[in-house]
Fold this sequence. Notes:
This protein is α+β, with helices and mostly antiparallel strands and 147 residues long. It has helices at 11-29, 40-45, 87-101, 116-124, and strands spanning 3-5, 49-54, 57-67, 70-78, 106-112, 128-135, 138-146. The protein is 33% helix and 36% strand.
Amino acid sequence: MPIRLANSGDLISIKSIAEAAYAKYTVRIGRKPAPMVADFQKLIKQRYMYVFIYNGEVAGFVVFYPSGDHMHLENIAISPELQGKGIGLQLIEFVEQQSRAQDFQAVELYTNEKMTENLNWYPSIGYQEKDRHEEDGFSRVYFRKIL
């Protein structure tokens, strides 16, 4: 798989992908979504971030980490020009594989309710909606997948 642990040399690409991938949501939400302002350097140091390499370049990334009884999928972003090529699904499958390897029985995530594409996509790959509520000023939709 063309997925590897992110390193500090990936930081510029990661920030660029986050800005480009989430830019369309800024108008819908009324401000930058949380993934656009994440502390990527810290996530890299914590070893929570992985990158997807396509044609020798960072094309996307995923952030995940253990949280209680499940793996929490914090962020996933793909360069807009490469969206729709299955990279996101490969990254999700990687998270699920890593979760199983660490004996977690579920993956949980949340998305903004105004990211309507996600509200359709996550259920199509086996995630079930479990809750909706306001958090940090965002209207979030929470999903869970039993592995």
